[in-house]
Amino acid sequence: QQPVQSPQAVILREGEDAVINCSSSKALYSVHWYRQKHGEAPIFLMILLKGGEQKGHDKISASFNEKKQQSSLYLTASQLSYSGTYFCGTVDRGSTLGRLYFGRGTQLTVWP
Amino acid sequence: DAGITQSPRHKVTETGTPVTLRCHQTENHRYMYWYRQDPGHGLRLIHYSYGVKDTDKGEVSDGYSVSRSKTEDFLLTLESATSSQTSVYFCAISANDRNTGELFFGEGSRLTVL
Q1: pLDDT one-digit tens code per residue, B35-74
Q2: Residues A91, B106: Cα–Cα separation, whole Å
């Protein structure tokens, strides 16, 4: 039930792009994305509810491929403030709503 | 500010003792969650609640129980703490009274079981 995230870690220079992937073995109802700084609580980034949906703000965007049961988070022109651990969370289609499961996280480090 | 607070924020206890963590919200939201976070495992769902006295298990519920006697409070109890339950525990609420809404997390409760 826990989605699988890849890669586990990414190291970037400021201004570079990154993609974080999230996949599930089950059909998905929704995908959430969160970022967590060290020692802090996770902070919401976005939710995708429909297959094919894409969302974004600033230079962070995400897509949801319902057929492939996958979502990807795109970080464009990375800034130092993007450093942190990114988690995807999924709600399985057909399961009791409320069960939101998170992946193990992707640690993103942006260097100047 | 999502109006969610956890207590205690830090606790050290001994194996075999009972422990209760409290999550309090001021927003009157229906859905509340307890997760534990351990290195390499991400956030794992322990239990969640979809209303007063309505709770359900998550993926790592063994050794934990919960109660929700009023909307604003969601309690997590470790009946007999073990060292494997040493972790950081996060409470979360779902915005807009829907489980598909964004989650707001509390600041976390760090529990050490000796």
Answers
A1: 999 988 899 999 999 899 999 999 999 999 999 999 999 9
A2: 21
B66 close to B19: Cβ distance less than 8 angstroms = no
CB contacts, 8 Å: B96 with chain A: none
Compute the distance between CA of residue A81 and CA of residue A88 in angstroms, rounded to an integer: 19
Q: How far is B76 from chain A (nearest CA, A)?
A: 17
- Chain B residue numbers touching A97 (CB-CB < 8 A): 50, 99-100
Closest CA to B22 of B113, B102, B106: B106
**Is B36 within 8 Å of A101 (Cβ atoms)?**
no
pLDDT digits (tens, 9 = 90+) for A21-80: 999 998 888 899 999 999 999 999 998 987 767 677 778 999 998 888 999 999 999 999
Look up residue A100 and give its amino acid. Answer: L
Q: Which helix (H) or strand (E) holds A3?
A: none
Residues from chain A contacting residue B50 (CB–CB below 8 Å): 97-98
Measured in angstroms, the CA of A49 and the nearest CA of chain B are apart by: 8
Which residues does B62 contact at the CB level (< 8 Å), separation at least 6? Answer: none
- Residue in B43, B45, B100 closest to A49 by CB: B100
What is the spatial distance between Cα B58 and Cα A62, in angstroms, rounded to a whole number? Answer: 26
